[in-house]
Write a structure and sequence with these properties.
By secondary structure, the protein is α/β, with parallel strands linked by helices. The chain is built from eight helices and 20 strands. The radius of gyration is 20 Å and the shape is globular.
């Protein structure tokens, strides 16, 4: 089947003839689905060489805080459902539930229709239906990585940890940009009113995400590394676990790779909470089953056990599927 979609070895998603997504490739249009580092590779080069860079307004706000420089004259901010045509090919951004501003990408050409899920989780990500070719993220692309509980179980476990340990020291919560801000919003929705603290970048992203989710995350203030209130919750990037872990309090790592339970001890005063922003294996299969594309390409750069996902889709759902780039 002739498919104008593929994944390069560097992780760029190519749709149609003009669009490169979440990675550098010599094409006139760069699309950024969200602000995570594995989806912004080569953005500086794309910003210099491409004619235009497309993202949702909230993704551009995140990129600005994170230090990416995209010239204003090259920016195209597309809201969910918004589209733009270039050289006979129309690109459209659609909602993906992952982090604030995340989007799926649909490209429609005279030869066919092509899509990319980007990172997503269910429910909350409407499948791109009836495409000629669909590129699918399968971060947890195998039943061996299937979590046996829901997101709400992980959030309940996190709230129980906060209730149990707050006051003995701060509760430190580690995660990646986007996930931290989502958890802040989820805790506020569930009535947690303790003070939130974080570094200036995390605070700035939280205030952008607060607008996106429509949830007030205050009280929120900047943590400078000085003495800290034992009744505060401190949010920090995952890279800080090692340097902060000896500080007083309980330390919580948000990770979808915790498969033992919604929360499990990972060391002295360190607990893993199994909160993920990626679809489970069952959710991946459910998405593809509802989308019913003519051909599925599993992203072999960012996915785990991509070959298994492709074989499962082909054998169980009866939809032709392969891994791109080929392994």
């Amino acid at each position: 089947m002739d498919c104008k979609a593929r994944v390069t070895k560097s992780g760029a998603i190519l749709l149609g003839s003009n669009y490169t997504i979440d990675g550098y490739h010599k094409r006139p249009i760069r699309v950024v689905t969200h602000a995570h580092s594995d989806h912004t590779k080569g953005l500086g080069r794309s910003a210099r060489e491409s004619l235009l860079v497309i993202a949702t307004p909230y993704t551009f706000k995140f990129l600005d805080v994170l230090g990416y420089r995209v010239p204003l004259e090259k920016r195209v901010e597309l809201p969910y459902g918004g589209s733009m045509e270039f050289d006979g090919e129309r690109v459209r951004l659609l909602k993906a539930r992952h982090i604030a501003g995340s989007a799926q990408v649909l490209v429609e050409t005279a030869e066919g229709s092509y899509g990319y899920t980007s990172d997503f989780k269910m429910p909350g990500t409407p499948p791109l239906k009836g495409l000629d070719c669909l590129v699918v993220d399968a971060t947890y692309g195998s039943p061996r990585l299937q979590r046996r509980w829901g997101e709400w179980d992980a959030l309940a476990a996190l709230m129980e940890i906060i209730d149990r340990f707050i006051g003995e020291g701060p509760v430190w919560i580690y995660g990646y940009h986007g996930k931290l801000q989502e958890v802040m919003a989820q805790l506020r929705l569930r009535g947690v009113r303790l003070e939130f603290m974080a570094d200036s970048r995390t605070v700035a992203l939280a205030r952008i995400a607060s607008e996106f989710y429509g949830v007030d995350v205050e009280p929120l203030r900047i943590y400078s590394g000085d003495n800290i209130d034992y009744s505060a919750i401190v949010f920090a990037h995952m890279s800080k676990v090692k340097s902060y872990s000896r500080r007083p309090g309980i330390h919580v790592r948000l990770t979808g790779w915790e498969l033992r339970a919604p929360a499990a001890w990972a060391g002295d005063r360190l607990i893993n909470v199994a909160f993920s922003d990626h679809a489970t294996f069952r959710e991946i299969v459910s998405y593809v089953e509802e989308a019913k594309p003519r051909l599925v390409l599993i992203d072999g750069v960012r996915s785990t056990d991509a070959w298994f996902t492709a074989k499962y889709v082909e054998k169980v759902l009866g939809i032709p599927a392969t891994v791109s780039p080929s392994q």
